[in-house]
Write a structure and sequence with these properties.
The radius of gyration is 23 Å and the shape is globular. With 235 residues, the chain is mainly β. It folds into 2 domains: 91 residues, no CATH class; 110 residues, no CATH class.
Amino acid sequence: MVKLIYSQSKKRASYDANQSSVYNGAAALTYAEITTYEAIYLATLNNKYSSNLSVYCNDLSNLVVRKVKIQNNTASFFAENLGQMRTWGSELSLKAHYAKNLVSEISAAYQVTTYFTEDQEDIAMAMAPVFLGNLKISYRFKGIMSVALKGRYVDEMLSPWDISSNKRFSEAAPGYFLLDANIRANLSNGIYLNLMASNITNTEIRYVSDQNFTWSDLGMVGYCTRLQVTAGYKF
């Protein structure tokens, strides 16, 4: 089966961005827009295996971009609708039912984003990983318990560009692979107990810095291994 998707959406600029634009004599900001084109191919090999392949293009325009104006040796920042970018990408996902209670899912995505904003055409896109991956294996025992193992890969990401210093806010964040585990027990009368362990291998996660964390030129450190226990009642 083949699906063809076309969509458009708009986003209003924030109040602060509009105020800074008008205060510095620039035109009031208009809506940022995104247009998406996507083709999806769905295939079922048999009652155990299925696949999903998608190819997509996202066109973004009128994005809010920070500009700097220097007057009387004083720098002031304001916003304009100058940002434009385009993303081409593809994602492949596979799902397998090895047994009645054993299911696995794996997916991989590749995407490339190009910046068309004036004076920034040669700057590589920030916070846009090229490769993404996901893996999930789950098993439901006969009775009340189920277990799941989830993995995800995020490729390297660059920090946003600082127009005032003409460089990036921080070093690039390296790619990482995380593993999470989950155990759920459905007890009697709708009561359930859930134990989730995040980043069970205690992998170091680093995020890039932006204009809100200019003091951290090495980026920000993510969470280590975490345990979360949840109890609830299902109506």
